[in-house]
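wait is this the right file?? whatever heres the structure
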């Protein structure tokens, strides 16, 4: 049977055109041919920046599926993503944010074939946060590339921010995916074949974005369902303040080391399976939850 590559669906915010170009090239190397992208711009984004990104998208040979402006409510991303998945139609969908570069243990055709062979309708991944060598929130130039600008990968999201590091990276059209692409109700990924989701969020400008997020969610200008996103942003801002504007890459809890997009980190299968199986949401007291109960779906 001829393999049909999954359709990539993504909700894109006001990212740098160079980041989108690198992201598109990465997924084309994985074999993706069809991109369905919804662009959403909060009100503070200048028209010139919006037009520049949309023009750059078309220059990459991609016609935006949808463009919208306005508040970035917590439900905005989910609604736009689900609309894209409906347009994508039957079959497998690859789901990735614009700062997420996925690395798989095998070619996509083999990964999907294994999922089908084990009667799974989703494939999972685990986030690995990419940061500059000195922990600074660095700007980057397209010339040197993302890999050289952000050579370290570690577990910032769940070990410091107490966020959910699990991701649904591939989902059959029949599987519903939860907000943030962290879970799929009724479906569990194979914990032994998790993709590495290289997370290039920690760049120049992210602190302004996080402060804006905290302000708008706190004031009610942007609607939230839980305080989790706002709490994670506050934890990062507090950490940055304590460490002179940098992420503490020497903290052994965060396990930062040099990694690459070309292959999975050494020992990734066991490391990712252990983290995914043990992770729990923080308790009401703000501490990581117990790892005794069975994993959530």
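ok assuming it is, sequence goes like this
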């Amino acid at each position: 049977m001829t393999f049909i590559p999954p359709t990539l669906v993504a909700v894109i915010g006001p990212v740098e055109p160079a980041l989108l170009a690198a992201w598109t090239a990465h997924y084309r190397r994985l074999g993706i041919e069809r991109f369905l992208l919804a662009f959403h711009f909060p009100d503070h984004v200048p028209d010139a920046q919006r037009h520049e990104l949309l023009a750059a998208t078309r220059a990459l040979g991609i016609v935006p599926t949808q463009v919208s402006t306005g508040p970035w409510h917590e439900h905005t991303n989910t609604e736009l993503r689900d609309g894209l998945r409906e347009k994508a139609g039957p079959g497998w969908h690859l789901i990735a944010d614009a700062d997420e570069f996925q690395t798989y243990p095998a070619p996509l055709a083999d990964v999907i074939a294994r999922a089908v062979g084990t009667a799974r309708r989703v494939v999972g991944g685990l986030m690995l946060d990419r940061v500059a060598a000195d922990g600074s929130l660095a700007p980057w130039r397209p010339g040197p590339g993302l890999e050289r600008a952000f050579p370290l990968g570690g577990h910032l999201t769940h070990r410091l921010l107490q966020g959910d590091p699990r991701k649904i990276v591939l989902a059959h059209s029949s599987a519903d995916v939860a907000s943030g692409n962290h879970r799929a109700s009724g479906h569990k990924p194979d914990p032994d074949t998790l993709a590495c989701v290289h997370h290039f969020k920690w760049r120049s400008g992210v602190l302004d974005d996080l402060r804006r997020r905290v302000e708008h969610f706190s004031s009610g200008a942007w609607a939230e369902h839980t305080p989790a996103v706002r709490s994670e942003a506050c934890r990062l801002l507090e950490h940055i303040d304590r460490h002179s504007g940098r992420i503490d890459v020497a903290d052994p809890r965060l396990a930062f080391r040099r990694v690459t997009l070309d292959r999975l980190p050494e020992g990734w299968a066991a490391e990712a399976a252990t983290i995914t199986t043990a992770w729990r949401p923080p308790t009401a007291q703000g501490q990581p939850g117990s790892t005794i109960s069975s994993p959530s779906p």
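The first helix runs from residue 17 to 29. so i think its the right one actually
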